[in-house]
């Protein structure tokens, strides 16, 4: 039996998405009051809801910025990526927003005058700044050091430190007890200022939103604070922490405990000795190129709906299998405008990365959507972008660049042949990856199959599959209306195998076939490029598939531990 520490779990932990019903009374009371009084300025229920939405927006915005690798790649402090385990662990990050909303409601019921604060009070902004420095900062410092004692760290605070790469959502990845303590930290200056008679709605909104902004800054894993600022005004380094400063706390754990002001670490003698030097190093190298990737997968956007599942739009949607979410439809017009901007102004950009053993693999994206590849007037521009990416990879020293999906379209650039012929001295190897795609499909077919019905039969991939299967004496029913293309493929087969290739023009021909395949059964072009890199092959893989290399590529993939998802 596992004994859970008191107050380590959330009261609504088992509610799932139903936890948002806790906002229901606030929403109902807010709209009822608005209907009755028509005064939104004194409607504290709607104010709490609006503040929660704005706070959520700040965390989401910081997460988006942190994951915009095309902007932040050379400013990242910890170089590893955020894995699915961390995303799942931080899934309920917004629990503390619900807690704060409920606590704020309770405070208004205990002190009704808090619901009738004026809109603006200049003295309140000054007062809350003083109370923040005098109460919130030292209170957080004491609480934080307390949570780093053995028992409290083991049973409570270790959850917060279990996120390997700090992100804005990491702020919410903590136990119920911790957030009760942090509620006192953020609430004390607000209540104190209001008790002094200087409270206002603007003061509360400004303080809470700036508080969240600075917390997300420290957890962003992106160094944006210039070291020259501290060199020009040295005292500032004690008044404002940096992402590097807080990351040192997360990695070392025994120093840099402050909320936002390192002054209190200086008073407590807990400033990490490398804080300023590391910040200067990170800030100084921010504009320089980082590690050169060994392998690049050159992708493109599929459609407008899928573009909203990019990690820098929503890492939560990006971490789940793609499905159309109704909740994303309100964002469709924004995504459409972004698509138009990308069409007119954007260049190939860094989309994501991962580390395989000691190698850095990156995914770059051509700023074009799927439908644009079928517009005749857009093809030249698309090829220019692909060529630009290939030449950039060549200049950087990338070993292999693999073309994804429509980027290797035969009608567009001959499966990459266009670029290899135009630039014969390329050091980077250009790979379409279709050889492994064919190998995966072929090895998913049971060995005892005697007949296969093949759609997309005269495509580049269909041709290779048909020629391979006929050599195995498997009868291939090739669905195609293009007799000339079928006959051309048939002539490529050995004379004794040509009879195993049969042209059919209707799906009914498959009624007696026990094994049917379609295009796109497996998408392995990315893995094909990885295998090309791992094997150190020095040839380009462009144009028509070399049927003789299918088994070789398959064996190489298995050697490096790459297997289809369906393989046992």
UniProtKB/TrEMBL annotation:
Protein's gene: LOC111430006
Transmembrane stretches, start-end: 20-35, 44-65, 96-114, 126-143, 180-210, 322-343
Species this protein is from: Cucurbita moschata (Winter crookneck squash)
PANTHER family documented for this protein: STEROL DESATURASE
Record Gene3D superfamilies: NAD(P)-binding Rossmann-like Domain (3.40.50.720)
GO cellular component: membrane
All copies of domain Very-long-chain aldehyde decarbonylase CER1-like C-terminal, residue ranges: 508-564
Gene Ontology terms for molecular function: iron ion binding; oxidoreductase activity
Domain of life: Eukaryota
Membrane topology classification: Multi-pass membrane protein
Name of the featured protein: Protein ECERIFERUM 3-like isoform X2
Domain Fatty acid hydroxylase stretches: 130-270
GO BP field: lipid biosynthetic process
Homology family: Belongs to the sterol desaturase family.
Main location: membrane
């Amino acid at each position: 039996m596992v004994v859970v520490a008191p107050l380590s779990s959330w009261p609504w932990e088992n509610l799932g998405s139903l936890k948002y019903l806790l906002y229901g009374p606030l929403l109902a009371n807010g709209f009822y009051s608005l209907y009755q009084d028509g005064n939104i300025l004194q409607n504290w229920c709607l104010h709490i809801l609006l503040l929660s939405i704005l706070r959520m927006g700040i965390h989401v915005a910081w997460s988006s910025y942190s994951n915009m690798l095309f902007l932040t790649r050379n400013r990242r402090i910890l170089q590893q990526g955020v894995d699915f385990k961390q995303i799942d662990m931080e899934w309920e990050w917004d629990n503390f927003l619900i807690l704060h909303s409920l606590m704020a409601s309770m405070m208004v019921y205990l002190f009704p005058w808090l619901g009738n604060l004026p809109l603006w009070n200049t003295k309140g902004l000054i007062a809350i700044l003083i109370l923040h420095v005098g109460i919130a900062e030292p209170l957080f410092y004491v609480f934080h050091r307390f949570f780093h004692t053995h028992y409290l760290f083991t049973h409570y605070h270790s959850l917060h430190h279990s996120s390997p790469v700090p992100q804005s959502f990491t702020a919410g990845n903590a136990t119920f007890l911790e957030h009760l303590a942090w509620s006192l930290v953020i609430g004390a200056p607000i209540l104190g200022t209001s008790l002094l008679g200087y409270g206002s709605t603007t003061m509360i909104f400004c303080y809470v939103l700036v508080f969240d902004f600075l917390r997300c800054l420290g957890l962003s894993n992106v160094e944006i604070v210039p070291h020259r600022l501290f060199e020009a005004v040295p005292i500032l380094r004690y008044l404002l922490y940096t992402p590097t400063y807080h990351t040192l706390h997360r990695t070392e754990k025994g120093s840099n405990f402050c909320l936002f002001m390192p002054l209190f670490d200086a008073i407590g003698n807990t400033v990490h000795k490398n804080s300023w030097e590391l910040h200067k190093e990170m800030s100084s190298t921010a504009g320089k190129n980082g590690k050169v990737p060994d392998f690049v997968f050159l992708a493109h956007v599929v459609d407008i709906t899928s573009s909203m599942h990019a990690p820098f739009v929503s890492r939560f949607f990006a971490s789940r299998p793609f499905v159309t979410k109704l909740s994303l439809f309100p964002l469709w017009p924004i995504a459409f405008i972004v698509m138009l901007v990308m069409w007119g102004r954007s260049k190939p950009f860094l989309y994501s990365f991962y580390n395989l053993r000691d190698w850095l693999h990156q995914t770059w994206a051509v700023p074009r959507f799927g439908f644009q590849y079928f517009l005749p007037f857009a093809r030249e521009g698309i090829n220019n972008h692909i060529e630009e990416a290939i030449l950039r990879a060549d200049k950087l020293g990338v070993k292999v660049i693999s073309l994804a999906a429509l980027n290797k379209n035969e009608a567009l650039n001959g499966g990459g042949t266009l670029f290899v012929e135009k630039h014969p001295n390329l050091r980077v190897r250009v790979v379409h990856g279709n050889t492994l795609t064919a190998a995966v499909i072929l090895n998913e077919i049971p060995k005892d199959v005697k007949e296969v019905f093949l759609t997309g039969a005269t495509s580049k991939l269909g041709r290779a599959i048909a020629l391979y299967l006929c050599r195995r004496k498997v009868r291939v029913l090739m669905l195609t209306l293009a007799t000339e293309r079928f006959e051309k493929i048939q002539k490529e087969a050995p004379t004794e195998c040509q009879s195993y290739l049969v042209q059919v023009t209707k799906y009914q021909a498959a009624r007696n076939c026990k094994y049917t395949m379609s295009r796109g059964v497996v998408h392995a072009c990315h893995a094909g490029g990885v295998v090309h890199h791992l094997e150190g092959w020095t040839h380009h893989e462009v144009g028509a598939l070399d049927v003789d290399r299918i088994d070789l590529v398959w064996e190489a993939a298995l050697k490096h531990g790459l297997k289809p998802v369906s393989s046992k």
